[in-house]
Write a structure and sequence with these properties.
This protein is an alpha/beta fold. It has one domain (about 1-70, about 140-375): Crotonobetainyl-coa:carnitine coa-transferase, domain 1 (Rossmann fold). Helix content is about 40%, strand content about 15%. The chain is built from 15 helices and twelve strands. It has helices at about 1-5, 25-40, 50, 55-60, 90-100, 110-115, 120-130, 170-180, 205-210, 225-235, 245-250, 275-285, 300-320, 330-335, 370-375; strands at about 75-80, 80-85, 135, 145-150, 160-165, 185-190, 215-220, 240, 260-265, 285-290, 295, 320-330. A seven-stranded mixed β-sheet has the order 4-12-9-8-5-6-7, with helices on both faces. The protein has a three-stranded antiparallel β-sheet with strand order 1-2-3, sandwiched between helices. Helix 2 (about 25-40) runs parallel beside helix 13 and helix 13 crosses helix 14. The longest helix is centred in the last third of the chain and has 19 residues, at about 300-320.
Length: about 375
């Protein structure tokens, strides 16, 4: 409990009008164990608990109980249980009338809250999945993390590894950031038409996740640039991605017998379900509870946990010399750390979240494209 309070995570957990809450029973020990495994494999020492609160520290976020720290996700009581819904993208908000079979709306959350309260969880989630909405039932997914060997790696030394990071936002970039701290060369690849959405957020957080990486920007609709992307991926020792397998296959990208291929998904590579860090945590049951019901645990916690776990698995695969397809679902990772809410001792001193500072800013979009491609 002292570690939880000192990390800054406790300040992010609980209701606005109530005291901060303790962690799920397995969370603190699980984070420590993962970070110890990373340290043994790579020599990189990470304060995993403090890392969970870095985005909130930079963005000035705090706890809101049934609303996420970033306020894009809400825990909603349905007729027979609880769901979490994330409405952050314009397309998600536009799909709400189709999801709830209502007319167009202006003030979305009051209507969603009222409509969800009158319906059952299963059809709410099923219809949302059909529409590509990030909606999850509390504790609905406890699916595991899988690693399937496919060959041997070209290197077992992380310092010799080239990592191509096709992911965005938090989980994948954090995984790459940790590999970079261990000495790997990190090349961040973005679509010119759809760059990493984290570029639109706090610049200090984007720098923290991507500072020191090389930036390649390509037009995936251009045949010549798509061919360059394929050659770059083929040259990589480790690939990190967070896309649906079908989308990458349509680009001609798939794991090879020398890759450590880290695939970050919402619910696993066999599912089309979409998830973000807060609703993915709820799906895995990673919440805290008080007498009024469930609350969000910290800030989008499934994202940084997944980044930590993915890095740990990548280090392990390289250490064994195994090329592996590593499937790391947000919901499955969250389930690994879930548990009953621990009681808080009133004497615990609760610290605010903090964030490290990166010595270098992240590069501008595509700053290293020509040089990196010239090496192929």
């Amino acid at each position: 409990m002292a570690a939880w309070a000192a990390s800054g995570c406790m300040a992010l957990t609980g209701r606005e009008d109530g005291p901060p809450l303790g962690p799920p029973a397995r969370l603190v020990a699980g984070v420590r164990s993962t970070c110890e495994s990373i340290a043994r494999a790579s020599g990189v020492e990470i304060d995993g608990l403090a890392l969970l609160g870095e985005r909130a520290a930079i963005a000035g976020l705090t706890r809101h109980g049934e609303r996420s720290c970033g306020e894009a996700t809400r825990l909603l009581r349905a007729a027979d249980g609880w769901i979490a819904a994330t409405l952050v993208r314009e397309d998600d908000i536009a799909a709400v009338p189709a999801w709830l079979e209502t007319e167009q709306i202006r003030d979305v959350w009051p209507l969603v809250t009222q409509a969800v309260a009158q319906r059952q969880v299963a059809p709410l989630v099923e219809r949302a999945r059909l529409l590509g909405l990030p909606v999850a039932a509390l504790g609905c997914d406890t699916g595991g993390i899988t690693a399937r060997p496919s060959g041997t790696t070209r290197t077992t030394d992380i310092a010799d590894a080239m990592v191509v990071d096709l992911s965005a936002l938090w989980a994948g970039p954090l995984c790459g950031h940790i590999l970079q701290l261990a000495g790997a060369r990190l090349i961040k690849v973005e679509s010119t038409g759809r760059p990493d959405g984290a570029r639109r957020g706090p610049g200090a957080f984007f720098d923290l996740m991507n500072g020191g990486k090389e930036s390649v920007a390509l037009d995936f609709a251009d045949d010549e640039q798509l061919d360059a992307l394929r050659r770059l991926v083929a040259a990589a020792d480790v690939v990190i991605e967070a896309s649906r397998p079908r989308a990458l296959e349509n680009l001609g990208l798939r794991p090879a017998d020398h890759h450590v291929w880290v695939s970050i998904t919402g619910y696993g590579r066999g599912s089309d379900g979409v998830a973000f860090g807060d609703d993915g945590a709820v799906a895995g049951g990673l919440v805290v509870e008080d007498e009024r019901g469930p609350c969000f645990c910290a800030d989008a916690i499934a994202d940084p946990l997944t980044g930590l776990v993915a890095a740990d698995l990548a280090f392990a695969a390289l250490g064994r010399g195994n090329a592996e397809l590593i499937d790391v679902p947000l919901a499955g990772v969250a389930a690994r750390f879930a548990g009953p809410t621990l009681h808080v001792d009133d004497r615990v001193d609760v610290a605010p979240p903090t964030a490290r500072r990166m010595p270098a800013a992240a590069p501008e979009l595509g700053a290293d494209t020509d040089r990196v491609l010239a090496e192929l």
